[in-house]
Amino acid sequence: MAGFNKVVSSYEDAMAGLKDGMTVIAGGFGLCGIPEGLIAQIKTLGVSNLTVVSNNCGVDGFGLGLLLEDKQIAKMVSSYVGENALFEKQLLDGELEVELTPQGTLAEKMRAGGAGIPAFYTATGYGTPVGEGKEVKSFNGRPYILEEAITGDFAIVKAWKADTFGNCVYRHTAQNFNPMAATAGKITVVEAEEIVEPGTLNPSEIHTPGIYVNRVIQGTFEKRIERRVVGEESV
To answer: Is CB count within 10 Å lower at the N or C end of the chain?
Structure first.
């Protein structure tokens, strides 16, 4: 990288510095908007004992599910894990620590971490196992639990377009978690469908300012569907 140009040419450079025991925050929703190539590079690196924070853990053999195959993930902080049989097996066998977090709370944990807010109160989860052991405070007669923010050693996100300065635009469902995750990493790596020159993106449409981004790489994406459902032809 030179000056403001944050583009790297290899996945090795994109994920340089990732080590055993680190925390990785990953953007995306289901298999939509996930940084496929960066996840594959983590598998290639063979790092282990990772804490991964993401809405879900991919599916068997794809997305973050790849990292379960060699038991690279020690702890998963997520909202939804129902599409991954290997995840279920490792959880039930005691090989994987799981911290289930309500979806909105998880998004806010990332956003708060990126904003430098160490914790916040939310009504979500009060009176359920999610709230056990957490501080409770009443506001306007309603109980709220204290949730701590999340930051990571790395944040990996997928953008529709990024410029060489690291400014990012996400498309449709990929706006779920990617913008929040991008702010919460000590090192944020963006895998983009298209990299453009500075000034190409409309400033009012930028979701993540380049100040949050450390590295940008051009990616190629399979964009697999989690569960294909095809309706029967009408007769």
So the answer is: C
